[in-house]
Amino acid sequence: MRLKTIDTAAPDQMNKVHWQRFSVPYEYPVAFLRDVFDPGNSLFYQMVAREERDKNHRCFFVVDEGLAGPELDARIRRYFDVHQGKLTLIDQPMTVPGGEIVKKDLAHVERVQSAIHTHAIDRHSYVIAIGGGAVLDAVGLAAATSHRGLRHIRLPTTVLSQNDSGVGVKNAVNFKGVKNYVGTFAPPWAVLNDFDFLDRLPVRERIAGVSEAVKVALIRDPEFYDWLEKNVDDLATFAPQAEEYMVRRSAELHMHQIAHGGDPFEMGSARPLDFGHWSAHKLEAMTNHHVRHGEAVAIGIALDARYSVLAGLLPEGDDERIVVLLENLGLRIWHPALESRDADGRLSILTGLQEFQEHLGGELTITLLKGLGHGHEVHEMDGDLVRQAMDWLKARNPT
After folding, report:
1. What b-and-e string marks burial along 151-189, b requiring 16 or more CB atoms within 10 Å of the CB?
2. Which CATH topology does 30-200 take?
3. Using one digit for the tens of pLDDT, what is the confidence trace for 288-315?
4. Where is the 3-dehydroquinate synthase C-terminal domain (predicted)?
5. d(CA 380, CA 136)
6. I want to staple 275 with a disulfide (CB 3.0 to 4.6 A). Which of 157, 241, 312, 367 is the partner?
7. In angstroms, how far is the first alpha carbon of the chain from the final one?
8. Which H or E run contains 151?
9. How far is residue 76's CA from residue 68's CA, in Å, rounded to a whole number?
10. What is the domain partition of the chain in residue ranges?
């Protein structure tokens, strides 16, 4: 810690301003594995006990109700029985709704907080969430705001949460219809990406998550983008080797941006990892989340890719490559809700720019493309070009 004093002259006294500065190192492991609760797999225990080996660790599980059931409960209990004396399971796993339902109502967060209080879960115990990104968000918020922060372990179970949101530092739920309005920045204790959970996903959910890999490749890694194009058939059919590499590489790129982008807690106005998201967030809300997040991101990517061409940033034809990749993955690049208008006849999607700026808390900063693998920030968007980009997308998908 360094203490600096600044003296400033005043008419009747000398003012002293003290600047306190300190830094807190953050680090957490992100593991990729299969069968996390196999009794012979010690990785879960190693992550829990990585700083304190000689004690019994208390663990409380919160599980997405779409995954919960006797089979998962039995696997968890068997694992804790094998590690008896090192791990203690607090009660039966608690279940919460999955998807946007768990983020719509703060009552779900309060239920988790109430359970944390009831079971006397302290700052050296563990709250472990198993589920998709929405469940991780809600449980992470409950953990971050109980006792000013509990040890939180994430077990993401969707492509989108394993390759993007689950490895990050944010927790949030919606409030009064505004996405991620109530939240915190709170790094997890550990993240365990078990690929076996992906095999249980519906096809729609499994494909939707790939959009976040396309996004991060487009703004940060041209070689990864080329790899996505070359392996699109394997990705669309969930070939294990391709899917696992896609998840790992996408997670690595997201983690690198958080650690080395200069703004891990988003104090500024730039959000490069939100490429394609200004319209995606609005489209989700406009469809009452019938369009999944990953699906909306795919549409947002296509929209901003075409806009980048119209704005003279991206070479003509690169937008076509991007759209073809998304379509070959099985993702749509158009939805009729994009044509919705408000009472004044204005395209509703354009209000997403205003809401996105409010979310940023500063000047409008939108990431566009100046090449495949190269993001470019702009501070204004031309509504006419947005409309032209939408017309281009609609022409490709008239139905």
Report:
1. bbbbbbbbbbbbbbbbbbbbbbbbeeeebbebbeebbbb
2. Rossmann fold (3.40.50)
3. 989 999 999 999 999 999 999 999 999 9
4. 209-339
5. 33
6. 367
7. 61
8. strand 151-156
9. 11
10. 30-200, 219-396
